[in-house]
Amino acid sequence: MRFSDQFEQRFAEMLTHYPTKRSVLVPTLLYAQDETGYLSDEVIEELASRLELTALDVRNVISYYSMLTTKPRGKYNVQVCTNIACMLRGGEELLQHCEKKLGIGHKGTTPDGLFSLEEVECIGGCSWAPAAQVNYDFHENLTTEKMDRVLEGYAKKVTA
Amino acid sequence: MADLVSHPDEVKVVSRRFGMGATNLDRYLEMDGYKAVQKALGMGAEAIVNEVKNSGLRGRGGAGFSTGLKWSFVPKQAPKPKYVLCNGDESEPGTCKDRLIFEHDPHAVIEGVIIAGLAVGSHTGYIYVRGEYRYLLDIMQKAIADAYARGFLGKNIFGSGCDFDIYWHGGAGAYEVGEESALMESLEGKRGIPRIRPPFPAVVGLWGGPTVINNAETLASVPHIILGGAEWYANLGPPKNGGTRLFCLSGHLKRPGVYELPMGYNLRKMIFEVAGGIPSGRALKAVVPGGSSTPVLKSDEIDIGMDFDSVAKAGSMLGSGGVVVLDETTCIVKFALRTMKFYQHESCGWCIPCREGTDWLKKTLIRFHSGGGVKKDIDNMYYLSENMLGRTFCPLGDAAAMPTMAFIKKFRQEFEDHLDGKPCPFEKAGAAVMV
Predict the structure, then answer these.
(1) ipTM surpassing 0.85, yes or no?
(2) Do residues A86 and A125 make contact, with C-beta atoms less than 8 angstroms apart?
(3) Which SS3 state, helix, strand or coil, does residue B84 take?
(4) CB B164 within 8 A of CB B114
């Protein structure tokens, strides 16, 4: 199991921030997932042994947090908010549009592995609704046309 | 990233440095940066607590508890280390203010954490940023590193002989973690399950040590109070509701955005003047005044001052400052359903009234909205919500129950309009069923 040097540096530094080892777990899981795409059995075993936890302890934590996943996802995870503020300004229509455009539903992945789609709860884009996140990037004041351009932008990133 | 707005009625305190490049430490220092910490270092703990008490600052996360009073609950002598924990797990639907603070003024949060630490005799602070806000966590990490590089954090800060460390921490997607005891669990590397109280965090908190937990906006307000004085800050708002507030205006508005207005600012004016009113000449139906958990106000209930006490008097809560505006085309049943779907998803499942209650309410509302409701459902939903109130470990159960009761009480007719298999009067014909 190899993580990037940056991950290792951050991990070593974080361990010095807390009186207990396991305190680093939640952010570390997310940083690990950023590198490996999802939290595989191997990643879980590795982090459990580093933090002197059982794999079950780690899985218990993973299942609680909505951003963490033990299944592979597309390279770009499109997260459309349909919570109240976004719903009022077309969040549901935006999600439907993405479903049609990508040909996948909630938590689905395109066959080429490029995009995943997720209907998410409030992401803090309420005043700029409707909002979506692609991985960690925020896209706001969206329309279906603007969303098309956003998705095309990510598709181009791969071919470029 | 997020667009900034402005209005002449704004009183910029917390947002004073927004859009001015204050993430850069040199720029921040030019704009009174770290002066408040230096002043606080010479004040002594008791004077800081009194200053914040007298300023009328109340928790901006939603509960509205006096910040100075909260600090005074931390015991002076403690066998374990004391901690300051900044709650930046902003996730109440309708709320997007802490995001701007982290994006534009991260050092103000750092200053707030240090000052809170000086007030309670702590030497360690944590700043918890929600997982979705990765770019803000990056900004915060850099800000903390910059502050260490100048000696504003670490050993002997500003040559005072006082040590103070601040560490960043990131979440991974959970509304419940915004609740203070669940926040501590999450920081300790566990599922975000609330702890039973008492003991309160001020006595037994992180790793068993006394812990002060404040919202990011609350802490970002503190340096301004220290520099400007309690009296100045208190006088910005009505009695017992000092200062200003970042109001996140969203929904059916011409100019939605985050505006900093004095506490007590009239809600009608906020909607129709500051945010430009409702587009396309449509009429106002209702307002959710303080995030999704606060009881809805009808269009004739909005001539109120937006401060904790006035909104409470009107039967709702100022909450987290998320003002969600609904025009006449909104289906209240659908809105109630979206709200409940959220709470059902976010309920941690630890206690039964919340776990089962939110699930039943969601199922009933789905059936109801799709035309399969029976008249008895309306009273049943109210009764179920009423029985969740006050019977859960943490306020998430209340947060789900309170708005539901208000929707039913104030918009009963709309619920009845969905009965007898009738299609939703607001849904366009042929629209896909989303939830």
Answers:
(1) yes
(2) yes
(3) strand
(4) yes
Examine residue A56 and state whether it is found in any structural domain, yes or no: yes
Q: What is the pLDDT of residue B431?
A: 63
Cis peptide before B239 (omega within 30 of 0): no
Range of the domain at A22: 5-62
Q: Most B CBs within 10 Å: which of A70, A96, A122, as the mutation test of the B interface? A: A122
pLDDT-derived band at B429, boundaries 50, 70, 90: low
Contact B251 A85 (CB under 8 A): yes
pLDDT for position B283: 98
Calculate mean pLDDT across residues B56-85. 96
Residue A69 in domain: no
Q: Are residues A41 and A112 in the same domain?
A: no
CATH number at residue A43: 1.10.10
For A121, the closest chain B residue by CA position comes to: B342
Q: Which residue of A has its CA nearest to B182?
A: A64
Task: Inform me whether the C-beta atom of residue B132 falls under 8 Å from chain A C-beta atoms.
Answer: yes
Residue A24 touches chain B, beta carbons under 8 Å: yes
- Test A65 with B131 for CB contact under 8 angstroms: yes
Q: Spell out which residues of chain B touch residue A97, defining contact as CB-CB under 8 Å.
A: none
Q: How far apart are CA B31 and CA B13, in angstroms?
A: 12
Q: Tell me the pLDDT band of A159, cut-offs 50, 70 and 90.
A: confident
**pLDDT attached to residue B177:** 96
Instruction: For chain B, positions 144-163, list CB contacts with chain A under 8 A.
Output: none
- CATH code, A150: 3.40.30.10
Q: What is the pLDDT of residue B424?
A: 84
Decide: B212 and B78 in contact? Cβ < 8 Å.
no
d(CA B328, CA B330): 6
| A97 and A148 both lie in a single domain | yes
Give me the percent of chain B exceeding a pLDDT of 90.
94
Please state, in angstroms and rounded to a whole number, the distance separating the CA atoms of residues B435 and B321. Answer: 27
Per-residue pLDDT at B425: 84
Residue of B nearest to A92 (CA): B434
Are A80 and A133 contained in the same domain? yes
Write down all domains in chain B, each with its CATH number in brackets. 25-234 (3.40.50.11540), 244-327 (3.10.20.600), 332-416 (1.20.1440.230)
Partners of residue A27 in chain B, C-beta under 8 Å:
131, 169-172
Q: What is the mean pLDDT of residues B334-347?
A: 97
Whether A67 is covered by a domain: the verdict is no
Q: Which of A72, A157, A79, A66 is nearest to A117 (CA)?
A: A79
Is B256 in contact with A128 (Cβ distance < 8 A)?
Answer: yes
Average pLDDT on A45-71 reads 98
Percent of chain B scoring above 70 in pLDDT: 98
